[in-house]
Predict the structure.
Amino acid sequence: MFKIFWQSLNYGWRKLCSRRVYLVCCTLVPLLFGFFFMDLMKEGLPLKVPVSIVDLDRSNLSRTVIRNLGSTELIDVAHADESYADALARLRKGETFGFFIIPRGFQKNAISGAGTTITYYSDMTVFVPGSLAYKGFKTAAVTTAGGVVQTTLVSTGVNESVAGTLLQPVVIAEQAIGNPWLNYSIYLCNSFIPGVVALMVMLMACYTICDEIKKGTSIEWLRASGGSIVCAVLGKLIPQAIVFSIIGVGLQAVMYTMVHFPMNCPAWHMILAMILLVIGSQGFALVLVCAIPNLRLSMSLASLTGILAFSIAAYSFPVQSMYGAIGIFSYILPPRYYFLIYADQALNGIPLYYSRWYYIVLMLFPLAGMLGLGRLKKHCLNPVYVP
Amino acid sequence: MNSGNGILGWFKSVARVWAREFRLVFGDMGVLIFFFVLPLGYPVIYTLIYNTEVIRDLPIAIVDHSRSPESRELARMIDATPALEVYQYCPDIPAARKLSNEKKVFGVLEIPADYAKKIGRGEQTQVTYFADMSLLLRYRAALGALTDVQLSLGEKIRGDVMNDLGLIVQSFDGSTISNDAVFTGDPTQGFASFIIPGIIILILQQSMILGITMIAGGVSERRRRNNGYDPMSVDAPAGATIIGKTLCYLVCYIPMALYILHIIPLMFSLPHVGNIWHCFMFILPLLLASSMLGQFIGVFVTERESSMLVVVFTSVVFLFLSGLTWPRYAMSPFWTLVSDAIPATWGVEGFIRMNSNGAVLAEEAHPYMMLWLLTGIYFVVAYVMRRIGFGKRRSETYTGVSKI
């Protein structure tokens, strides 16, 4: 029995090393993707959003406002435009992500009490710079208004310190737990890098199993495993699992030790999660292969679910806010559970108890994959290639 | 088969390649799925995922150490915002943390014991909100709601104090400068309205590349089976072959582009303010460039299905390179250069501004010209590859597949 298993493993290893495309997909793709992601967003937040300003007042006060705007780290006052139309045209061309209009008679109306309005436009076709521009604009507008209120209050006889307090009687201070810098790299790398590992695991599992059927070598494959489909599948998938786990844990090591992403749990919590993600994704792929033992269709399904996983596993938009009938699909995907473990363990560092089900579900995927092996064996014994 | 010489012969070759490519596309279920089912289905699935657009009633817990009318008013104001919902009052932080660990709440607001006292004394008081950071969208929703509450509460308290002091000022709370925020492109700041116009461009490019590389893999397989000769190929000059194939893909994609660029935004009421004819003009070089890029990548594909192994994951890379999530101005020069080389980058940039901001083609001249430039570059590269017979040589010598 042991000898047959060894033989099967040997067959799996040799197959895995036989083609360049396998090695590229197992090692190079996840590694390069990890490097790409960590390097692309290494600044954490795309600060200094280019914006323009339309100063129709050209007064002392308006220049102060512009100086205030320019001094925030959020935005970069890159252009000064003559009119609303000019500023809008610039925004449409994509040179800026927002503009700030100071109306005619701004200083006069602000001080005389006639009232005036600052208007700012943020381009939401690109979310992150648009939001940052909005935040910078709003801060500048509110503090300017506050400054005028303070002057008015003091001039009517209110004590200066009381006037200062009255500007902001209640402050709501936000504490961003685990990621106080609102670092985009921490937020996205932790979900997208394992997501790509899972995608490649699924594609490779589907490809290598169904390729045997396509080439008609599946009988040989079964023979090398003593006719046992369980043995054959294990022999094929274990070498891949080892390679992907090493790569996945290596990427984690880079994220948590070299790039210093927050990790508030013992290392083995995340290492276990990565290994289970690899095995769970293989189990998921096995379900697809057993359901449709056709190379092209199972690959298509694996690509479909693997790519949709980035959206439906709620890396950016929460499951709780999706339609119920859509959100439920998030729970059939292994990357979703890895993401939940990451949020609990590495980011928030809460007791392992609260993540127990996520680990257990990841362990159930391979078992689900085993269920349809009888069907797969039938197809392997009688390989028919449908293009 | 001799197609004759001269310009007429060349056009005849183009037509023959075009016709043969149609047969290859429509006779291949796999390619049909990529060319038609994928562009038809994916935009619908994606939009359905994000169609709720914004986060509503994010559950939070309140730890109220003050237990005063003022603190209860704050809680009521927060509960009344569209984004937040007070899920539960907790006696202390550990109780709130337990709720948070169980994922029943995604934020905790702690009101200090001297909250009401300080407001009464005219001092500043600080309330703390602890946010779960697993998703930045949740933080963003809470932040916006809490900032609004803070501002309106401040105005109210300021107005009350001024009334009590008997001050006569110009407005209710002494403020003479109001501010007005306008969001262009996505006025509701919804997630689907933001991401779908970009994603559909990527779908156009990626589905086309997947289909083309699958056809190329098929060619390679047939060559292997027939000792380096593909019985389905048409004997035509390299340039005519590339152009003939491109014409075929273009014809397939014109109805798809109409559906994706026009019908999808209409179906889901996504932002769609641009001139649709300008959008079509703009998308033409994107389709051409994608076709050329696909034919270039196809040279390296030796099997029908391995195209998926190498193409699928690039969708994620291209999405990030397009600048939709991480803006291009913040990329390093190296990644900017890489993203410059992807047709979808320029397609996304130009299309979202035309579709959502109502820009006209002239305003998108830069991305438009870049798309034509990429079309030219990838044509030349594909041409050279075809002339030196790179793919042909590979599939003749590449025997590793059938060995084992």
In short: Chain B has a mean pLDDT of 91.
